[in-house]
Amino acid sequence: MNGKALFPRREVSLSPITLGRICVPVFLLALWWICSRIIGDNFILASPGISIQEFWQGLREGWLIRSLGSTLGRVLGSFLLAGLLGTLIGVLLGLSRFWHDMMEPLVVAGWAAPKSVLYPVYILLLGLGNKSAIVFAATWGVFPLIIMLMSGIRRIPRVYFKLGRTLGMRPFALFGKVIAPAVSLEFVVGLRYCWCLSFLGVIVIEMFGSRSGVGRDLLAFQEIGDMKKMLAVVLMVVFVTVSISFAFYRFESALIRKRGLKEDLAMAG
Amino acid sequence: MRRSREVLFVRLGVVALALVLLEGWTRTIRESYVIIPPTMMVQALAILLTNERFWADIQTTLIEVGLSFIIAATIGFAVGVVLGLKPTLYNVIEPYLIAYYANPIFVFYPVFISFFGLTMIPIVIIAALASVIGVIVNTAIGIKHVKPVYRKIGKTLGMSFIQILIRIYFPSAVPQIFTGLRLGLVYAFLATITSEFLLAPRGVGHFIKFQYESFQAQWMYGAILLAVVVAISGNAILVRIENRLYNRRLEAI
């Protein structure tokens, strides 16, 4: 909006904040290593070294990739479904004050409801398989996106709409040139929550009952007491989710800089 | 005022219409085990609430939610205050707070079961881990956003650090801290029910799964109705209190 590049070229330097951010995973790994040394038995708590070895072994043998592939396939499906539905509903509710005020408590109620216990209902209605899994996980991700978009559009200063009408802008032009840029940050944050909750929903489904995927493998390894493989799977999930989260964070920070705001991205919602 | 009443009536009307349509549809379909009429769900719940074993499951769930929330609120509040008072430390940790949200916390559940066995402990830990992040982030943001002029007033009046914390920071940050506690409680409840549902010896979530696997649709739906109503109404009540706290702060300004 103010002509600044989204990702400006910056000098790479080790500021105290960057150094601090590098130290956090190192600290967590050290803490894990200390705990495993104290316990002293890799059967009870495998050390980071052994877990990372098992992780590479799993990648070479392919079972880790197959497991992650199954899970990511479902997550992608539910994320796309939740993203499309959430965007459509969020925008429609945000554009109408009456429908926003009417539906907001219902949307918040939908977010607060324990959706995991409704999975049997989805199975009974849609059958066991990817269809019920994707629809179920999408219901986890759709609500935060609707809430973010709804409230973001309501917060757009009304003078922007008046300006659009004064300039004779058609609805699509008003949406593309005024509304969409104004809620771009809320949209990206909502997508982030949508992705995270869809992922969580898929893991829950796979733990409940599935023939493949990360959740199913974790419970299977727990049943046979294979702590090394369990931690290898956990490492892989943490690596994937943290990487995606950092990508979202970078994009959101860039949008904030472009708008000249001081938002707290970690604000819980 | 008139408009808000109009909105409320329309909302109640929409919900009532949805329930009537669901009641009508479920009474006409042949496969009544798929979804039962809402009136039967209410009847089933009323019968369940007279059952001692179901109350034992409710008690287990309440203990798990209570314990996990108390742990999360205590640790979350302490960590949140430290992060709020040290903005540099907050900036260092911020991407990891966001990454924490991204992590599907239930991947750790089998690890904790292997460690502690199939008891309440893994559920309390998972629910506390799910709940603590909301408390940390909102407490930190509430403390961070206390206006610097308020701190300066405290120093001018010769207040000690503890006095500034208790008499200036905390009252000013109460609405945001309350938001964090509300989110913490909601996440603790959701994580507890989900953990019990996945794998647990007892609890409301376990009851629902057991009834599903036993093809006892009416008891399953009765318990689902209880979990959903408790979560939604609890959150609604806390949101009303939270709105009053925010409005009171706006009036004070």
| Gap from first CA to last CA of chain B | 23 Å
Average residue-wise pLDDT of chain B: 88
Structural class of chain A: mainly alpha
- Major sheet size, sense and barrel closure of chain A: none
CATH level 3 topology of chain A: MetI-like fold
In the CATH hierarchy, the architecture of chain B is: Orthogonal Bundle
Question: What is the fourth-level CATH superfamily of chain A?
Answer: MetI-like
Q: Could you give the distance between the termini of chain A?
A: 26 Å
Would you write up a description of this structure?
- The complex is a heterodimer of chains A (269) and B (253).
- Chain A is mainly α.
- Chain A has a single domain (56-259), classed as Orthogonal Bundle (MetI-like fold).
- Chain A is 78% helix and 0% strand.
- Chain A has helices spanning 16-39, 48-61, 63-95, 97-112, 119-126, 130-154, 158-166, 171-182, 184-208, 214-224, 227-259.
- The longest helix of chain A has 33 residues, at 63-95.
- Chain A is globular.
- Chain A starts with 15 loop residues before the first helix and ends in a 10-residue tail after the last helix.
- The mean pLDDT of chain A is 85.
- Chain B is mainly alpha-helical and 253 residues long.
- Chain B is built from ten helices and no strands.
- Chain B has helices at residues 2-28, 38-48, 52-85, 87-102, 109-116, 120-144, 148-156, 161-198, 204-213, 217-252.
- Chain B is globular and about 70 Å long.
- The longest helix of chain B has 38 residues, at 161-198.
- Chains A and B meet through helix 1, helix 4, helix 5, helix 9 and helix 10 of A and helix 1, helix 4, helix 5, helix 6 and helix 8 of B.
How is the topology of this model organized?
The complex is a heterodimer of chains A (269) and B (253).
Chain A: H1 16-39, H2 48-61, H3 63-95, H4 97-112, H5 119-126, H6 130-154, H7 158-166, H8 171-182, H9 184-208, H10 214-224, H11 227-259
Helix pairs in contact in A: 2-11, 3-4, 3-6, 3-9, 4-6, 5-6, 6-9, 9-10, 9-11, 10-11
Chain B: H1 2-28, H2 38-48, H3 52-85, H4 87-102, H5 109-116, H6 120-144, H7 148-156, H8 161-198, H9 204-213, H10 217-252
Helix pairs in contact in B: 2-10, 3-6, 3-8, 3-9, 4-6, 5-6, 6-8, 7-8, 8-9, 8-10, 9-10
